[in-house]
Design brief:
The chain is an alpha/beta fold and about 400 residues long. It has helices spanning about 60-75, 100-110, 115-130, 150-155, 160-165, 175-185, 240-250, 255-265, 265-270, 275-285, 290-310, 325-330, 330-335, 350-355, 380-390, and strands spanning about 5-10, 15-20, 30-35, 40-45, 50-55, 80-85, 95, 135-140, 195-200, 205-210, 215-220, 320, 360, 370-375. The strands form two sheets. The chain has an eight-stranded mixed β-sheet with strand order 5-4-3-2-1-6-8-7, with helices on both faces. Strands 11-10-9-12-14-13 form a six-stranded mixed β-sheet, sandwiched between helices. A hairpin with a 4-residue loop joins strand 4 and strand 5 (about 50-55). Helix 1 packs across helix 3, helix 10 (about 275-285) crosses helix 11 and helix 11 packs across helix 13 (about 330-335). It is globular, with a radius of gyration of 21 Å. The two termini are about 20 Å apart. Residues about 395-400 have low confidence and may be disordered. It binds adenosine-5'-diphosphate. Adenosine-5'-diphosphate binds near residues 276 and 324.
């Protein structure tokens, strides 16, 4: 069977990222990123090495400039465009072919993701205008977590806030947790998609998740991506009364507090140095106290979250590390596992430090549940889900002109 092509698009507020993926392939055929859109410094760069200034280009103009390059790498017609969309609210429990109803749904969920959903819509509009004959699919970061039971997704707040205003835990990083849990089942010789997993996605944003037989049972992020773990610049969990305390004692308003919690906290705030784990590891090795504290808090809070999430599962078949930190930082994995002996999880130190970069592997000691390092591939997951949506459509939708 011919392997179909998918163009994966991730529209940001001032950027658009593209990846051309072939069905079933672990490597993109072509990748490009346009940045600083809507400013005089707008430009794109591509995996082939091409770069170009784009003047004041918007999303549509940037995509238009990139299309000839995409066509150069696409030997076949593109079957579908798959868009990453951050927030699908409760309306979207899986990927959807984009039509007017889906567009309206993404717009309606914008209050829950005011920076991301409008940016995702800019990418969708650009692609729909420029590639009108190719079906477009939306893949939502939140959809995977719609399987969480109410006792996991409800806050202990008056019912009206949920029923009328949608205040609940949604969770994010769904495509990544879903992808690595699936890979974990394959790596451990289980039936496709099966197993009880704890997953730690540790990038600039960080979240943990409990997954049972391919379904999210609970996750650390909530109404917004601020809840849960310590992240690069985000605080993760703090006492909810912190807002009132800062307002009363320092006179801070909400925008100032949002800035603090989202941009000045996490690894950056604790270390006073950097939000970048690589840099912090180096500084820790050089004796920087702030870097050492930041890494310790990061790992302890991660372990505490993972141990808490275990109650969402009937057993723990294994723990998965992914994202830039999870995949690359043997130190983070080791310090986190130091706190998880209570769960019978034990690392093999040599396997942990010896794992080749970019490769999936098992790093547990004998007798421990599996501990896996699995490079995430959100674009591949988006591509595969987009094709699955196409396979459910009437036949005429599958062969664009
Ligand atoms: P994003 O969430 O933006 O996709 P990534 O998944 O790329 O981010 O993760 C970025 C984080 O991964 C940074 O903190 C970076 O320092 C960390 N990282 C990448 N490589 C290494 C490494 N070799 N050792 C430790 N940390 C690393």
């Amino acid at each position: 069977m011919t392997k179909r092509l998918v163009l994966v698009i991730n529209g940001g507020s001032s950027s658009i990222k593209l990846a051309l993926r072939q069905q079933g392939s672990s490597k993109p055929l072509f990748e490009a990123q346009a940045e600083r859109l809507n400013t005089p410094q707008a430009s794109f760069s591509c995996s082939g090495g091409e770069t170009q200034s784009l003047g004041d280009a918007d999303h549509r103009e940037a995509l238009n400039a990139l299309l000839p390059l995409i066509k150069k790498y696409a030997q076949l017609p593109i079957s579908v465009v798959g868009h990453r969309v951050v927030h699908g609210g409760e309306q979207f429990t899986g990927a959807r072919l984009i039509d007017d109803e889906v567009l309206a749904g993404i717009q309606a969920n914008a209050p829950l993701a005011p920076l991301h959903n409008p940016a995702n819509l800019s990418g969708i509009r650009a692609a729909t205008e420029l590639l009108p004959d190719i079906p477009q699919v939306a893949v939502f970061d939140t959809a995977f977590h719609q399987s969480m039971p109410p006792h996991a997704f409800r806050y202990a707040l008056p019912d009206e806030l949920y029923a009328v205003h949608g205040v609940r835990r949604y969770g994010f990083h769904g495509t990544s947790h879903q992808y690595v849990a699936h890979q974990a089942s394959l790596l451990t010789g289980r039936q496709d998609g099966y197993g009880a997993w704890l997953s730690a996605h540790l990038g600039n944003g960080c979240s943990s998740c409990a997954i049972l037989d391919g379904k999210s049972m609970d996750t650390s992020m909530g109404l917004t991506p601020l809840e849960g773990l310590v992240m690069g610049t985000r605080s993760g969990d703090v006492d909810p009364n912190l807002h009132a305390h800062l307002a009363r004692t320092l006179g801070w308003d909400l925008p100032r507090i949002e800035q603090l919690l989202n941009r000045e906290s996490g690894l950056l705030g604790l270390s006073g140095l950097s939000n970048d784990m690589r840099e912090l590891e180096q500084a820790r090795a050089d004796g920087h106290g702030g870097a050492q504290l930041a890494i310790e808090v990061f790992c302890y809070r991660l372990a505490r979250s993972l141990a808490g999430l275990a109650v969402a599962l009937p057993r723990v078949d294994g723990l998965i590390f992914t994202g830039g930190i999870g995949e690359n930082s043997a130190l983070t994995r080791a310090l986190t596992l130091n706190h998880l002996a209570v769960m019978g999880l034990h690392l093999d130190p040599d396997r942990n430090s010896g794992l080749p970069r970019g490769e999936a592997g098992r790093i547990e000691a004998p007798g421990s549940p599996a501990i896996l390092v699995i490079p995430t591939d959100e674009e591949r997951q988006i591509a595969e889900e987009s094709l699955t949506v196409m396979d459910r459509q009437p036949a005429q939708m599958e062969t664009p002109a």
